[in-house]
Structure formats: structure tokens, C-alpha cells
Amino acid sequence: MEGFCSGLHRSPHKGFSVEFKEHRQYVQGDEVRSIDWKVFAKTDRLYIREYEEETNLRCTILLDRSGSMGYCGSRTGAISKHDYAVRLAACLAYLMLQQQDSVGLVAFDKQVGRYIPPRSRATHLRAILGELSRSQPNHETELGRVFHELVPKIHRRGLLIVLSDLFGDVDELLKALAHFRHAKHEIIVFQIWDPDELTFPFRQWTRFESLETPGNRRLVDPAHLRGAYLENLRQFRERLTAGCYRHRIDLVSMTTDRPYADALASYLAMRRRLK
Q: Sign (positive/negative) of CA torsion 32, 36, 38, 43?
């Protein structure tokens, strides 16, 4: 992506380095020193030598701390989706800083919280981990609106990593993600699930309580809801998958019962195969 210093990643942009890219015709305003005079001597035309630019990756992690991320399943040793996302964010930040990339953090719920701009200094990890340790899930959120607000705040294009359950209006969310893509960002979405949300294992009368709207609770027989819930879930996931594919956004589903290190390794292996 874009950066000021050399790093470990090949950039899609053209710049000045040791690996030749191609010639292009000189236009007014180009640096005279970049003219290839040998080609001029042969063709009597002015051409510029362009090179493959190698630069540091610039990444911003977007952490969802809305109330729904506080859900913690019924199995022994379960952790909440929020705690899982926090640990995954810490792993990603450490990985990127180790390879001399820049990484930043935005924690949000119904509004954008503290924004830590991307930096590549080793001491920057302390600021990110400190913010992650203070993060708590609460409030409602509308992902589409929050993401639209973030677009002008993240000025330079780079990699955006979204850690969220993506619960909300699918159409508005996809419009907001398309807004990021229009700003030339690459996007990876890690959709965090608790296994209960995918299997709906409840069998006896159960009280369901909203994590985002205090006082909103219902005592119901799950047997009457299971079929409709699973069908709505299937449609929700299909629409998200199709929308992300259409906008060239990587969507990776992760469950909190899976070791995040294993899941991350599997995803990085997939990225290498795609390259």
C-alpha cells in the first residue's frame, strides 16, 4: 500500500527502487532526472523509467465493541466475541509491527471511539494494547453509519481489518464497505461468531435478553423459533458473502471455540495461495 519507508511488501504503485517496471512517455511536470537518455538517443523521444516500489504496509484495525459482541456462549471455558476479537487484534498488531509495517486501531460502537493512527515504531504496540485492554462491549451500533464517518478520517489508503459480528442492516453495511473500496482501501473482514449463534442449541424454555437494549427480554420456547432463526441466519450470511465478493472484500468467518492462532494461520496460508 502507501508508506514513507521501505518495508517487506511489494506495492502495486510505481515508484523509485532497484526493480525496473516499464517505460512511459514523458509529460510536462515529470522529473527530468527520471528521463531515460539512452532511449532518447535511440528514438529521439522522451521516456520515463518507472520502477516497482517496495513500501511498508499501512493497516488500520476496526474493532466492534457494540453490545452484541459481549455474547458469551454456554459451553465451559467460553469467552465472549469481544474478548476473542481483542486477542485477535493484539495478534495482528504484533505480527505487523514485527515485520516493520504500520498499524493503527479504531474501537467503535454507536460512534467512533479513540482513533490511534498507524505507526511502525515498536513502542506503538503498547498504545494499541492499552486501548484494547480498556475496551468494553456496550451500546447499540449501526455499522454502515459509523464506517461512512470513518472514511474521511483514514486519509491514506491501506489495509483495513474489520473485527465484528456484522449484525445490522446488510445493505447499509455493504454500501459503507463499498465507500472504503472507492477510497482504494483493501479490506479484510473477520466475522466473529459464537457457536451458539450458528447452531441455536437451545432446547428448553429460555429467556433471551438483548445485549444492546436494556430491559428488552423474552421468555420463549426455542422449538418454535429454531427453524425461522436458522433460515434468517442462512439468508443473512448469503447476502453478506455475495456482497463482499461483489466488492472484492475478503470475508473470513471465525468462531470463538477455535484457537485464534490456528484460524489466523489458515487465513494467511490462503492469502499466500491467492498471491
A: negative
Q: Give the separation between CA 135 and CA 87, rounded to whole angstroms.
A: 11
Residues 64 and 47 in one domain: no
Q: By C-alpha distance, which of 190, 113, 112 is closest to 145?
A: 112
**Strand, helix or coil at 39?**
helix
**161 shares a domain with 231:** yes
Find the domain containing 32 and state its range. Answer: 9-55
Do 162 and 38 share a structural domain? no
What is this structure's pTM? 0.77
pLDDT (average), residues 170-179: 94
Residues 22, 67, single domain; the answer is: no
Neighbours of 251 (CB within 10 A): 19
Report the alpha-carbon distance of residue 120 to residue 97 in Å, rounded. Answer: 6
- Residues 49 and 74 occupy one common structural domain: no
pLDDT value of residue 199: 92
